[in-house]
Amino acid sequence: MIIEDVRYRIVFDSRGNETVECEIEAGEVIGRAIAPSGASTGSEEAIVADPYKIDEIEEKISKGIVGMSVFDQFSVDEALREIDGTENFSSIGGNFAISASLATAKAAAEILGVPLYAYVGGLVNEIPYPLGNVIGGGAHAEDSTNIQEFLVIPVGASDFFEAQRTNAMIHKAIKQEFKKRGIFAAKGDEGAWAAQISDEQAFEILEAAIAKVEDEMDVEVRIGLDVAATELWNGERYVYKDKKLSTEEQITYIAELIDKHNLLYVEDPLHENDFEGFAELTKQVKCMVCGDDIFVTNPRRIKKGIEIGAANTVLIKPNQVGTLSDTIKAVKLSKDNGYEIVVSHRSGETEDETIAHLSVAFNATLIKTGVVGGERLAKLNELVRIEEYMDSPTMVKIRRLSG
């Protein structure tokens, strides 16, 4: 079955910004995918092209991939790279490329009558745990915490529905904890609560909410952080509201937080080019040390990290690298070298549910896609459906759970 037509349209993301949706037509089927966008971005991510260049870019991509087999994902993705001609999609844009790439896979899966997760991943029956952002600051909310995301992982949940229900209850309980303390809180970019509080207050409020929900649900919950340290780094030090830390002091500070709060997961604890700092912290601690900005889903950067033991977990965001094939390469390289996988949304999201399927296809440990908000629930509810559709589904085993 060949690709007969490629169509783009401009649509909107959760921040009200324009983004692009691609439709790939093959026979009687249309595959559709929308490109998300990030607020905290790595400097080596695929470039985002102006959505209003839609006519020019649509023509280029159509000429390059119409007539190709919809089932030959690798060749379609190679063609997208050739059409662009740059390392980071600075010509046609990673947003135009990833939406075409994912729409191709979705069309192929539909033609075969199988779910996307099975088309990409084969026979799989494990579901990732939801990594839920419940208190936000940093680049996602003004006048809030230094740390960008305070996250929860319901590790004691027996199935995905119970896991997401637990996260949702914690989100509600946090609102009540703010209310009890007379603190005004609003929702940030990803639906997490944001308020004028310190990092220490955020931990106190979060731990109180978790204790309440653990008692009610009888489900163990662990805490994670996205430090987004590149946003704190000024070229010499990590600048917090109340302190400035050297690299060595930052490593010590993060290690102390991990120990004090029994953290399971820490993302981007050092800036995006500090491979050595990541390696040093990873040696010192036993939790999941995850690289986002440092790796940007790029096999070349992941390989560099593997060589020196920087991190032990890779955040996977397909739009960072621009094609499904390159995303699969990044996942395979990571897993072959003992790294865990976390599939992630972006802060500027849409109703597109594709990453829910990819998290299952890649046998990811966690899926990071918020807790509330329609664009987040599109993925979470899709995982509820996937779990229901599967024969004998189980929750994935978290290797570093015991520390």
TrEMBL record:
<dbReference type="InterPro" id="IPR036849">
    <property type="entry name" value="Enolase-like_C_sf"/>
</dbReference>
<feature type="binding site">
    <location>
        <position position="368"/>
    </location>
    <ligand>
        <name>(2R)-2-phosphoglycerate</name>
    </ligand>
</feature>
<dbReference type="InterPro" id="IPR029017">
    <property type="entry name" value="Enolase-like_N"/>
</dbReference>
<protein>
    <recommendedName>
        <fullName>Enolase</fullName>
        <ecNumber>4.2.1.11</ecNumber>
    </recommendedName>
</protein>
<dbReference type="GO" id="GO:0009986">
    <property type="term" value="C:cell surface"/>
</dbReference>
<feature type="binding site">
    <location>
        <position position="317"/>
    </location>
    <ligand>
        <name>(2R)-2-phosphoglycerate</name>
    </ligand>
</feature>
<feature type="binding site">
    <location>
        <position position="148"/>
    </location>
    <ligand>
        <name>(2R)-2-phosphoglycerate</name>
    </ligand>
</feature>
<dbReference type="GO" id="GO:0006096">
    <property type="term" value="P:glycolytic process"/>
</dbReference>
<feature type="binding site">
    <location>
        <position position="292"/>
    </location>
    <ligand>
        <name>substrate</name>
    </ligand>
</feature>
<feature type="binding site">
    <location>
        <begin position="344"/>
        <end position="347"/>
    </location>
    <ligand>
        <name>substrate</name>
    </ligand>
</feature>
<feature type="binding site">
    <location>
        <position position="140"/>
    </location>
    <ligand>
        <name>substrate</name>
    </ligand>
</feature>
<feature type="binding site">
    <location>
        <position position="347"/>
    </location>
    <ligand>
        <name>(2R)-2-phosphoglycerate</name>
    </ligand>
</feature>
<feature type="active site" description="Proton donor">
    <location>
        <position position="190"/>
    </location>
</feature>
<comment type="function">
    <text>Catalyzes the reversible conversion of 2-phosphoglycerate (2-PG) into phosphoenolpyruvate (PEP). It is essential for the degradation of carbohydrates via glycolysis.</text>
</comment>
<feature type="domain" description="Enolase C-terminal TIM barrel">
    <location>
        <begin position="124"/>
        <end position="398"/>
    </location>
</feature>
<comment type="pathway">
    <text>Carbohydrate degradation; glycolysis; pyruvate from D-glyceraldehyde 3-phosphate: step 4/5.</text>
</comment>
<dbReference type="InterPro" id="IPR000941">
    <property type="entry name" value="Enolase"/>
</dbReference>
<dbReference type="GO" id="GO:0000287">
    <property type="term" value="F:magnesium ion binding"/>
</dbReference>
<dbReference type="GO" id="GO:0005576">
    <property type="term" value="C:extracellular region"/>
</dbReference>
<feature type="domain" description="Enolase N-terminal">
    <location>
        <begin position="3"/>
        <end position="120"/>
    </location>
</feature>
<dbReference type="InterPro" id="IPR020809">
    <property type="entry name" value="Enolase_CS"/>
</dbReference>
<keyword id="KW-0456">Lyase</keyword>
<feature type="binding site">
    <location>
        <position position="226"/>
    </location>
    <ligand>
        <name>Mg(2+)</name>
    </ligand>
</feature>
<dbReference type="Pfam" id="PF03952">
    <property type="entry name" value="Enolase_N"/>
</dbReference>
<dbReference type="InterPro" id="IPR020811">
    <property type="entry name" value="Enolase_N"/>
</dbReference>
<keyword id="KW-0479">Metal-binding</keyword>
<feature type="binding site">
    <location>
        <position position="346"/>
    </location>
    <ligand>
        <name>(2R)-2-phosphoglycerate</name>
    </ligand>
</feature>
<keyword id="KW-0460">Magnesium</keyword>
<feature type="binding site">
    <location>
        <position position="267"/>
    </location>
    <ligand>
        <name>substrate</name>
    </ligand>
</feature>
<keyword id="KW-0964">Secreted</keyword>
<feature type="active site" description="Proton acceptor">
    <location>
        <position position="317"/>
    </location>
</feature>
<dbReference type="InterPro" id="IPR020810">
    <property type="entry name" value="Enolase_C"/>
</dbReference>
<keyword id="KW-0963">Cytoplasm</keyword>
<feature type="binding site">
    <location>
        <position position="292"/>
    </location>
    <ligand>
        <name>Mg(2+)</name>
    </ligand>
</feature>
<comment type="similarity">
    <text>Belongs to the enolase family.</text>
</comment>
<feature type="binding site">
    <location>
        <position position="149"/>
    </location>
    <ligand>
        <name>substrate</name>
    </ligand>
</feature>
<keyword id="KW-0324">Glycolysis</keyword>
<dbReference type="Pfam" id="PF00113">
    <property type="entry name" value="Enolase_C"/>
</dbReference>
<feature type="binding site">
    <location>
        <position position="368"/>
    </location>
    <ligand>
        <name>substrate</name>
    </ligand>
</feature>
<dbReference type="GO" id="GO:0004634">
    <property type="term" value="F:phosphopyruvate hydratase activity"/>
</dbReference>
<dbReference type="GO" id="GO:0000015">
    <property type="term" value="C:phosphopyruvate hydratase complex"/>
</dbReference>
<feature type="binding site">
    <location>
        <position position="267"/>
    </location>
    <ligand>
        <name>Mg(2+)</name>
    </ligand>
</feature>
